[in-house]
Amino acid sequence: MESEKIVFEMVFTEEAKNFLNKQSLKVQDKILYNIHKIQKGEKDRELFKKLEGSDIWEFRTLYNNIAYRLFAFWDTENNTLVIATHGIIKKTQKTPAKEIAKAEQIRKKYFEHKYDK
């Protein structure tokens, strides 16, 4: 059997891991399944989308009419690594600005820490 080619590595922050672990196993499976599809190179804006006016992307999962979001950003120096910053259960049509700002702050700290080494 041919092994599946992974296009990018995925790293989760502790907060993103905690968000995932709080969900039911079925929700976790669906979120990870969707992420894996994108990792294999599938281009699907319903699953992975860049947020307007930002360097933040969101992994999007809909399960039982509940919208789950994991926020992420790229680190192109490390083999196009994606860092999942944190997650939310989305209750409105528009992604809350405070959640985007939070992801941008995590991204900023990540790169500051990376270059301090």
Short description:
The protein has 117 residues and is α+β, with helices and mostly antiparallel strands. The protein is 38% helix and 28% strand.
Walkthrough of the structure:
This protein is α+β, with helices and mostly antiparallel strands. It has three helices and five strands; from the N terminus they run βααββββα. A hairpin with a 6-residue loop joins strand 2 and strand 3. The mean pLDDT is 91.
Q: Name the helicity range.
A: 25-40%
- Low-pLDDT runs of 5+ residues are none
| Count of separate DSSP helical elements | 3
Cα(first) to Cα(last) distance is 41 Å
Helix-strand layout with pairing:
Layout: E1 10-12, H1 14-22, H2 25-39, E2 48-50, E3 57-63, E4 66-75, E5 81-90, H3 97-116
Parallel strand pairs: 1-5
Antiparallel strand pairs: 2-3, 3-4, 4-5
List the keywords.
5-stranded mixed sheet, globular, single chain, 117 residues, alpha+beta
